[in-house]
Amino acid sequence: ANAATVAPSTDTADGRVHLTPANLIDRFHRALEAATTTRVLRAIFRDPARFLVHDALPAHPWFGDEGAANHTRLAPAHAAAGLHLFVYGRSALGGGPAPQRYPARQTLEASQAVARLHGLDPAQTLFVQQNPAVIDAGVFHHDVIGVGNEPVLLVHEDAFLDRAGTLAALRARLPSLVAVEIARDTVPLAEAVRTYLFNSQLLTLPDGRMHLLLPSECAESPQVSAALDAILADPANPIATREHLDLHESMRNGGGPACLRLRVVLNEAERAACAPGIFLDDALYARLCAWVQQHYRDRLHESDLADPALLDDNRRALDELTQILGLGAVYPFQDRKSTRLNSSHANVSR
Fold it and tell me: Could you confirm whether 118 is annotated as catalytic?
């Protein structure tokens, strides 16, 4: 979800799929990702007639951008024109309320810049401020307090600074909106953050109903379980089933189901124009599992960080992975490797 912000071709002025990699400037170790993410996306979405992968926004505090973690596209159906909800933590230039304990990683100016780059219709674009109090409670991205899929928005009562105004504006722009709101008295904010209830995957099933994919922590919480029972029992919304997965390792590192996906809506022609090796099937799954078994270290000691073999192993693994996926050279070390090989071949020919 932190990789980029995406707008499908149904929503953009030029009829192409637009992607803007997140600059992630609030965390230095994450900011290093932006250049490689851009190269990966351009290797996947390689047809310039159908896709436009922008450069990341300038690496400046005015343009702090955390990607789809703070962006939700709502629509009657994936293939229909949609409404883009951008949630920001602070305005870099306009002042106003801001969290006091933790930084607001997404700025209004970054969200506005992405919307302009993607050629979105202002009438179908909404910029909403996140409640500073929830940021200070540990909600560092909107996808920790709200999740959307097609016309459904599952959200906590405390998610937005202006709750009533936000819901009214969403309904005005998307009459088919189904807002499923969980009250703070039902699930306190701290429990929502602890269980990552809203950092779930909301998926449309073949029959049109929706399936909620949740961390197992949600099943272990009486308050969250009761809230989910009430949602599934309500015929007014299409959320019909739920499933809990053990993601303890990811959760301990601050990531739940929603953190593990970047939703890209494509039509059949756009899908056919993507790099073919990136779509998961049984054969690719088997190759990826074998790659993990061969290369993934199950433990890492401090002394390993001083061992050049760790760097060599990592590069060897990444080189093999990009070949499996058919992406070509997307890492800088692969460019250098290619340059050395070309230079060697030239010397031999001379």
Answer: no
As given in the structure block, the two tokens for residue 115 are 């919307």
Which residues in 54-83 are b (16+ Cβ under 10 Å) and which e? bebbeeeeebbbbbbbbbbbbbeebeeebb
Whether pTM > 0.90 for this model: the answer is yes
Catalytic residue among 18, 141, 142, 156: 141
The helix or strand, by DSSP H or E, that contains position 338, with its residue range, turns out to be helix 332-349
Question: What residues form DSSP beta bridges with 203?
Answer: 211
DSSP state of 57: P
C-alpha to C-alpha distance for 239 and 304, rounded to whole angstroms: 47
Lowest mean pLDDT of 78-92, 159-173, 248-262, 302-316, name the range: 248-262
Please give the order of strands across the beta sheet that includes 83-88: 71-74, 83-88, 125-129
Clarify whether 141 is annotated catalytic: yes
The catalytically annotated residue of 156, 217, 259, 274 is 259
What is the C-alpha to C-alpha distance for residues 216 and 243, in angstroms, rounded to an integer? 8
| Alpha carbon distance 147, 198 (integer Å) | 6
